[in-house]
Structures are given as C-alpha cells and as structure tokens.
Specification:
The chain has twelve helices and eight strands. It is α+β, with helices and mostly antiparallel strands and about 400 residues long. Among the domains are: about 100 residues, Muramoyl-pentapeptide Carboxypeptidase, domain 1 (Orthogonal Bundle), CATH 1.10.101.10; about 140 residues, no CATH class. Strands 3-4-5-8-7-6 form a six-stranded antiparallel β-barrel. A hairpin with a 4-residue loop joins strand 3 and strand 4. Helix 2 crosses helix 4 and helix 5 crosses helix 7. The longest helix is centred in the N-terminal third of the chain and has 26 residues.
Length: about 400
C-alpha cells in the first residue's frame, strides 16, 4: 500500500512538472512561432523602431533579429527568445511611448518585408523601394525614439535604418546590409565630423537624433542645401561591385579626410577614394577639369575608361597645349599632383602625367593616345596590384595632401 501511494505521488508530481514546463514553453515566443501573441510582439517592435514592415504574426528571422536588438539595448540576454521577461519589457516600452506616434501613424512607414515574405506598402498604397530617395519621415523619427547606441559589430535592422539614412544623405555608398562594419564606421565618423559631434564612431543618441534631423530636412551631403560643393557617391551598386558597404570586397573606405583644403574656385577640396567615392560616380565620356597648383594652368580631359585608375585624353588641341605647357613643354611619365574637378562639381586631389600611350578616341586633339589619372587608393592595395608606377602616384597624392593640410596619411 505504501509503495502504491509513493508511486501515485511521484506520478502527480511528474504531471505537475510537465504541465509547468509546457506552460513555460508556451509562453516563450521563438523563431517559428505564429499567432496573435507574435502579432502583438511585432507591433511593439515596429512601434519602437526595431522592426520595419507589417505585423504578420509569423516569428521569422527578421523578428528574431529585432528581438535580439531590443534585448541587447534593454540589458536582457540577447538570445532571440521572447520569454515573459522580454515580452513584458517590450510591451512596457511600447506602452510608455504611447501617443508619441510611429512612422506608420504619420503615413510614411518604411517599406520592408514581413517574415512571411509579403511586401508591405506605404499608407498611400504604393509599394516603396528599399533605397528610397529620402531617408526621412514626416515626423523625422527614423529610430522610433529608440536611441540605444549602435557600434561596430552590431547586426540588426536598426543598423540597416542607420545605413539607409547615411546612403540617402551621401555619407555611405552601396547597399544597406544591416552590418555595422568598417565602412559604416567611417560614414558615421564623417557625419559626426561634419555636424560638430564627437567623432568616436559610436552612433549614440546625439548622433542618431542629428541623423534624423538631417534626413527630415533632406540635408544631402554636398548638395546646395548644405552649402558645400555638389558631391555624389555614385550609383548604389552591390557591395561586391563597389566595395562601398561592410559586406563588400575588402576595400577599405576612407570617404573623406579629417582635413580639407580650398579649391581654385573657393569651394572645398576633398580627399576622395578611387574605389569608394570616385570610380563608380564617373561615366566614360564625361569631363574632368585638371588644375596644376604648381603652375596655375588648367586643362580638360575626357574620360576614356576606368580600371585601377582613370584613363582619359585631352578634350581639345588647346587642352593638350595647356597640359604640355604645365609639364615643362614636354611629354613625360613624371607625375604631377593636381586638383581635379569631377563632373559632379566636387574637387579632389589626384596624380597624372602627359605621356600619350596606347589608343585614344579623339582625333583632333593633337594627342596620340590617352593618359592616366590616379586617385587615392589604399597603399597596401596599390603595392599589391601596382607596385611600381601605381605606388609612385599614390606617394605623389599623399605628398600633395600633406602640403595642403599638414596631414600624413597612414593607409
């Protein structure tokens, strides 16, 4: 009899334990969960700016990343499991935000994809591209009042929002991939420098608010609205093609130097990187205005092709005559450090020569072939791919920049 009672008690305890575990399991939302609880979770994440798109009740990869981001920002274990503690904290944060409004409530919610793969639409009913021309919303609240610091190594949707804004405002090129790596770091530092913020590369509250304000006012870097010379980051191609985002081909992005000089027309002279800032912004057939600071002579080149440097040719016979005069009335491979006005109107520094070689496309410019214009590249990359003449041109560029700003480039 005693043995029977012991067995019965053990059975009851086992049932209770399993029931409790089952209840605990049911209360935790995770990747693969579906239902109203997931919908509520997603609505809160959207309201707080951790998730874009529409709440569809499907807990997929995007929702998991959003949960992890919220947990990390809230000091919770960032495991992507939305247990009671995470759910309570999330719902409380969303409730605290209350009537402050979200992007969706202002009628300008950013387009995205739900975890079920359906494309969402804007309030006007028309689907929107991920690379929208404007980074701002009517309320200016890109981050849903969530200003938790973003930093190198972060991977989440808030980083993607950050990148989209930086791309739209011309501080970052390529595609938003949600990975805060070196290129995003450089873009953040550049934005901070140009907005009188502490240039530490940490996208904290002050930086994120300043970015929201810049996006709201469409303060595109280099546009007339910013009072600087017109700039362009070029066509937003994939990371692999341009090396412009963090998931790219390993080219480091310099974007712009810590110091700037004055161009011949009084505008700003920038230090721009060939792969990240210049190459993909140019088109064959466009013109470059070259200014030689040593002689004060200018001439115009027509772009011929683009590889590891820019092949070009004098536009007219008069341009050829001016160029040769600047080089001491001779054709030489000896390079000069020069200023270059890009088709966008932006001035940068480069290195060039006036020795015609191989083929050209203009028959009446008194220049039988083309020449090379070298822009800033990473020295390590130049040594690997162009160890002789390419490196010599990089040294010329660095010497010119140092003479203008006193800055020694260490890359």
């Amino acid at each position: 009899m005693r043995r029977f009672i012991c067995i019965l008690v053990l059975a009851v305890l086992t049932v209770c334990f399993c029931a409790s575990a089952s209840a605990l399991e049911a209360s935790t939302l995770r990747n693969g969960s579906r239902g109203e609880a997931v919908t509520s979770l997603q609505k809160a994440l959207i309201q707080l700016g951790y998730l874009s798109g529409k709440a569809d009740g499907v807990f997929g990869n995007q929702t998991e990343r959003a949960v992890r981001a919220f947990q990390s920002a809230s000091g919770l274990t960032s495991d992507g499991l939305a247990g009671k503690k995470t759910q309570n904290a999330l719902l409380a944060a969303a409730a605290a935000k209350g009537s402050t409004g979200t992007a969706a409530e202002t009628g300008t919610q950013q387009t995205g994809q739900t975890d079920s793969g359906k494309q969402t639409e804007t309030a006007s009913g028309s689907s929107t591209s991920e690379s929208s021309a404007s980074a701002g919303t009517a309320s200016g609240s890109l981050f849903g009042s969530n200003y938790a610091t973003l930093r190198t190594g972060d991977k989440n949707d808030r980083v993607k929002i950050l990148q989209k804004a930086l791309i739209a405002l011309n501080y970052l090129s390529g595609k938003a991939d949600g990975i805060f790596g070196k290129n995003t770091l450089n873009a953040v530092v550049l934005f901070q420098k140009e907005h009188a913020l502490s240039a530490d590369g940490l996208a904290g509250k002050k930086t994120l608010k300043a970015l929201e304000n810049a996006a709201k006012n469409n303060e595109v870097r280099g546009s007339a609205s910013t009072g600087a010379a017109q700039e362009t980051s070029g066509t937003a191609e994939t990371e692999k093609q341009t090396g412009g985002t963090d998931a790219g081909n390993g080219q480091s992005q310099t974007a712009a130097a810590t110091k700037k000089a004055t161009a011949p027309d009084g505008s700003t002279l920038y230090l721009l990187h060939w792969y990240n800032d210049v190459k993909n912004a140019l088109k064959n057939g466009e013109h470059l205005l070259i200014y030689d600071p040593a002689t004060g002579i200018s001439w115009t080149l027509r772009i011929h092709s683009r590889g590891r440097h820019c092949d070009a040719e004098p536009l007219t016979a008069a341009d050829t005559a001016n160029m040769v005069r600047a080089f001491g009335n001779k054709n030489t491979w000896d390079q000069k450090g020069v200023y270059v006005k890009l088709p966008s109107g932006v001035w940068t520094v480069a290195s060039t020569h006036d020795m015609p070689h191989q083929s050209g496309t203009i028959s009446d410019n008194n220049f039988n072939g083309h020449l090379c214009v070298h822009f800033l590249r990473d020295m390590a990359e130049a040594k690997q791919n162009d160890p002789n003449y390419g490196v010599a041109n990089q040294e010329t560029i660095r010497a010119l920049w140092k003479s203008l700003t006193g800055e020694t480039l260490d890359y």
